[in-house]
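In the design runs reported in the main text, the only information available to the sequence generator was the tokenized backbone. The following block is the verbatim input for one such run; it is reproduced so that readers can re-run the procedure and compare outputs position by position.
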């Protein structure tokens, strides 16, 4: 086994900068970065200089593409768009605030809050399908980059799935992980296991 194969694949998970409608269920709506989000990009890029990476991946939604482009600007690495890294599809909840969800879908909102299950939003993507999609894509990225370091610029739900899998967190508790815009989490994937180095840094 080579020294590179003995090293982990380090995945630096970056949530996109603030988007238009931040705080609502954006899901797969192609919301662009807000003025605040655009102002956040230089500081985010500076904070990531400590990470030398060989690849940058992002979802194909404009808020992640713009964030990844800012991170890549002074690196010789072009972002690779991966649609499978999109946020969960929230169906009829997309573009809606939590208060509006409670008003329009009171029974479903109560089921979300009681923590016993993760029902899909009307017309939305079931949690099990979302997890399969994200997990499969992350495995592809890890397999393609043994012993390397990569950025994955994506959405809060995708990062929660990755952290939940690494830490053994039940689905019903994933939304207890708060992830601010531009938050950075780091996971090392070894051949025999996984170590979470930081969360929401």
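Verbatim output:
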């Amino acid at each position: 086994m080579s020294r590179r194969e003995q090293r982990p694949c380090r995945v630096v998970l970056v949530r996109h900068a603030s988007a238009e409608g931040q705080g609502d269920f954006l899901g797969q709506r192609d919301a662009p970065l807000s003025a605040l989000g655009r102002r956040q990009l230089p500081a985010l890029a500076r904070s990531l200089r400590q990470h030398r990476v060989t690849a940058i991946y992002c979802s194909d939604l404009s808020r992640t593409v713009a964030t990844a482009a800012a991170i890549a600007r002074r690196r010789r690495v072009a972002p690779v768009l991966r649609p499978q890294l999109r946020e969960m599809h929230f169906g009829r909840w997309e573009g809606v605030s939590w208060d509006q969800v409670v008003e329009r879908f009171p029974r479903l909102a109560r089921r979300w809050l009681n923590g016993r299950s993760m029902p899909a939003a009307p017309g939305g993507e079931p949690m099990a399908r979302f997890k399969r999609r994200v997990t499969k894509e992350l495995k592809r990225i890890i397999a393609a980059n043994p012993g390397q370091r990569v950025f994955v610029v994506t959405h809060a739900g995708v990062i929660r799935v990755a952290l939940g899998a690494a830490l053994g967190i039940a689905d019903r508790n994933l939304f207890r992980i708060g992830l601010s815009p531009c938050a950075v989490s780091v996971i090392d994937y070894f051949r025999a296991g996984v170590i979470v180095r930081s969360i929401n840094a």
